[in-house]
Amino acid sequence: MQSLILQTIAPIVLHLTLIFSVFLLLYGHNQPGGGFIAGLMAGVGMLLQWVAFDSAEGWRRFRWPWDKIFAGGLGLATLVGLFGLLKGAYLKSSIYEFELPFVGSVEVLTAFLFDVSVYLVVVGVLMSILTNLCDRRQAYR
Amino acid sequence: MRRFPAGSFTQHLNQPDIGPSDLAAILTAVFFPFLAALAVPYFAERYRRSAAWFAMTAPLVSLAAVGRLYGDWAAGGGKALLYTLPWAPSANVEVSFLVDGLSLLWGFLVAGMGVFTVLYSNWYLYEESALGRYYGFLIAFMGSMLGVVFADHLIALFVFWELTSITSYFLIGFWWERKESVYGAQKAILITGGGGLALLGAFLLLGGATGEWRLSALLARPDPAAVTPAVFFLVLIGAATKSAQWPFHIWLPNAMEAPTPISAFLHSATMVKAGIYLLSRFYPLLGGHPAWGYAVPALGMASMIAGGILSLRATDLKAILAYGTISQLGLIVTFLGFGGEAAVVGGTLHLYNHAVAKAALFMVAGIIHHESGTRDVRSLGKLRKPMPCTHAIAVVAAISLIGIPPMGGFITKEMLYESSLLPGGPGPWGAFWPWLTLAAGIVTALYHLRFLGATFWERGEEEPPKHPHDPPLGMLAAPAVLAFLALVLGLAPGLIQNALIAPAAAATLGRAQAPVLNLALWHGLNVPLLMSAVTIAAGILLYAGFGRVALVLEGGAALWRRGPGPDKAYDGLIRWAQDRTWPLLTALQDGNLRRYLRWTMAAPVLLLLYAAAQLDWRPGIWPDMRGVAFLPAAVCALIIAASFATALFPRRIPAILALGTTGYAISALYLMLKAPDLALTQIMIESASVVLFLLVFWYLPELEPVASTVGRRVRDWTIALSLGGAATAGMALAMNSHEVRTVADYFMRTSKPIAGFKNVVNAIIVDYRGYDTLGEITVLVIAGVAIYAMTRLTGEPNCNH
C-alpha cells in the first residue's frame, strides 16, 4: 500500500518525533517524560517509516546495529548500578553539579544515565524486533 | 571498608563510610577472571598465536591478588578476615568474602594451577579452532572456583559451586561434535548438578534452622542442634558428587573427553576437590556429628579401593589417571573422616601433593597422546627410550603418589597410616581401618606402577599410529615444574608447612591457634614406616605378577557386570526419565498457540478466584458510580464494545484493529484523568504493537476459522469472562483501598530532595524502584534476543510451516 500523503508526512513526523523524544528524555526528571516513553517515541517515529514506505526503504534508512544498541543500554545500566555500589549500594543514585562556561551550573544525576540506558534498550529492542521480523520476510521472497 | 575478625559480627552491620579500596584485592581475585573471560575470547581469536598469553593474565592477576590477601591476612596476625560489600543495604543483602588459612591455601592452589594449565595449553591446543571459547570458559571456571573458596555467604557459595559445574560442562563438551563428549558433559552436569541441589537443600535447612547464612558466623559458633541427619547427608552427597566419590564417581571417567589441560586442571587438581573443600570448611560444624566418623571414612575408603581397582582395568591413559584421581580423592576424604589434627594436616598437605603430581601425570598423558597419536596403553609401550624427558617426569610424579621417599607423597602416606592407627576409628571397627588403609595403599602403588609400566617399560601389543619422541621444550615446561614441586614438597616441606598448611588445618579444625608443624621424611623406625615398606614391596610383587592379577580382576569384572552398578543405574535412570518426559513434553508443548493461550489465561483466573475468596466482601466494596461524567462513561462503553469486537471478529486484521481501538480509547481515558505521560505511553505502545502484530501474522499459518462446537465456545467464553470479571473486581478493590496508607505521600515529599526529580513517576522508575526497572529492561533485552534468535538462527527458509 503506497499512500502519497503518508509518504510526504512520515519524514517530517520522523524528525519531530526524534527531537521530541530527546526532549522527553532530557526533561523527564522534572516534567512528564523519561527514558521509557522517550525511547518508545523514537521507535514509533521510525516505525512509521516502515509503514509509509516498504520495508527495504525503512531498512535503508535505519541500518543501525540495533542489537548492539540494546546490549549497550543494558551494559550502561549495569555500570551505573556498579557505580552506585561505590557510593554504598547497587544502583544508588548520586547528584553532581558542574559549573560550565556560558551555561552556568549543570546538574548531572547518575539516575539520568540510568534513564538513558532505559531509552537505549527500548529503542534498540523495538527496532531490533522490527528489523528482524522484516528481514525474515524478505528472505522468503 | 574495614576488615573484621570473623566472630565479631555485630560490628560490621552498620558501618559508616565504606570505601572500595580495601576490597580491591578480594574483588580482583574473584571477579577479574570473569571480566577477563569476556575479553579474552575476542583477543584470543584475533591474535591466535598469542591466545595463551592473553589468557595468562587472569591466573597471574588472581594469583597476585591472593598474594596480596595473604599479606593482609598475615599482617593481621593470621586472624580470619571478613570483607563485606553492601549490595542492597535496604534489603540487608551484601557480598561477603571470608579470608582465612583454608581459603588462602585453596586460592593459591587454584590460581597457581591456573598458571600451569594455561602455560601447557599454549602448546597443547595450538591448532585448535575455538581458542577463544576454550580460554574463556577456562578462566571463568577459575573465577568460579576462587568464588567457591572465598565465599562467606551460603547462597554465594552455592552459586559459585554451580558455576564450576556449568563451566566444567562446557569444557567437557568442548569438542561438541563428538558423541562421547556430549554424553560425558551431560553425565557430569546431571550428577554434579544433582549434588548441587542436595547442597542447596542442606544450606536452606541450615540457614532456616539457625537464621544465619554466613559461614563465618556458623563456624564461629557451631550449633550441633542445627546439624540434623538431613543436613549432614545432603552436604555429604554434595561433596561426594563433586569429588567423584563412590558411587557418584561415574561421571569423572567420561569427563576425560575434555581437552587434556582441562582434565589436569578441573578434573584432577581443582574442581573435583571442591567437595573436599566443602568437607574441610564444614568440619567444625559437621565433624562433631556422630555419623561423621563412620560415613566419611567409609565413603573415602570405598572410593579409594574402587578407584584403584577400576584403574587397573582401564586401558585409556586418561581413564587410568581418572580412576586414580577418584582413589586419591578418596584418600583425602578418608583423612578428613578420621579427623583430628594429624589427619587434617595430612589431608591438607596431600591436596598440594596430589594437585601437582596428578596434573603432571595428566600433562604427560597429553604429551604421549600428542606425540604418538593414541591414548590406548595397548598400542603404547617402551616409550622410555624415545621419550626420556617425559619418562623422567612421569616417574617422579608417579612415585610421589605411590609414596616413595624422597617425594612429598611419602610424607602424606606416612601420615595417613599413622592416623589410621590412632584410636580415632569408631568402636569395634577401629581395628579394621589400618588394614583397609594398607590395602588401599597397595592398590595405589600397583596402579601407578602399571601406568608407568604399560606406557614406558613394557612392550605394547600394537604399534602406535605415530612414531613418538620428546615434545618441544615449552610443552615439557609445565609438567616438569610440577614434578619438581612434588619433589620439593618432600625434601623441604618447611617451605609451606607453617606458612600455609598449618593455618589451613587450624581453620579446618576451627581453632584460633595454628599448630606448629615439623614435617619431615624421616620419622624414625615405627609402624607407619613398616606399613610403607610393606606397601612398596607388595606393590612391586603384585606388579611383577600382574598377569595373574589381571586374570583375577577379569573374573571379578565379569561377575560385577552381571549385577547392578552405578553406571547402569545412571543410564537406566536417564532412559526412564526420557521415556516418561517425552510424552508429557509433547502433550504440553504441541505448538498449538491457542492451547498455550488458554493455559496462560486460565491460570490467572484460578489465582484471582483464590484471592477473591480471601476477601471481605463488604457491601461498600464496589466504587460509587454516581458522579461519573458522560464522556468517560462513553469512552468506557467504547472500550467494552471494542473488546467484544476483538473477540468476535473472525478475521485477524479487523480483530487487531479492534484491539487497537481499545488501547487508544484507554489512552483517551488517561487524558481525561489528567495523566498526559501515561496517555502518550499508551498511544506509543498501541501504535507499535499494532504494526508488530501485523508483521507477526505473516509468520502464522493461514488457518480458516473452523466451526466451533458449543462445548468449546462455552469453555472459551468462560475463561474470557472470568478473567475479565476477576480483573474488574481487582481494580474495584484497588480503587476502594484509598484509606490504606500508601507510600505515595512519601514519594511525593521526597522525590526532589532524595532523587533530584520533580517528576515522581520517573523518580520511581529510575530511582526508588531502580531494581525493578533493571529487571524490566533485562526482560525486554531477553525478548529482543529471543526474536533475533527465532528469526535469524532458525533453519532454512523452506522449512516454513
Q: How would a crystallographer describe the biggest sheet of chain A?
A: 2 strands, antiparallel
Broad shape of chain A: globular
Radius of gyration based on Cα positions of chain B = 32 Å
Span of the ends, CA to CA of chain A: 17 Å
Structural class of the secondary elements of chain B? Answer: mainly alpha
Largest interface: A-B, 57 and 50 residues
Helix residue percentage of chain B: over 70%
What this model shows, in words?
The complex is a heterodimer of chains A (141) and B (801). Chain A has helices spanning 4-27, 35-52, 55-61, 66-86, 110-140; strands spanning 95-100, 104-109. In chain A, helix 1 runs antiparallel to helix 2 (35-52) and helix 2 runs parallel beside helix 5. Chain A contains 5 helices and 2 strands. By secondary structure, chain B is mainly alpha-helical. Among the domains of chain B are: 594-741, Four Helix Bundle (Hemerythrin (Met), subunit A), CATH 1.20.120; 742-801, no CATH class. Chain B is built from 31 helices and 3 strands. Chain B is elongated. The two termini of chain B are 60 Å apart. Classes of the chains: A mainly alpha (141), B mainly alpha (801). The interface between A and B is large, with 57 and 50 residues.
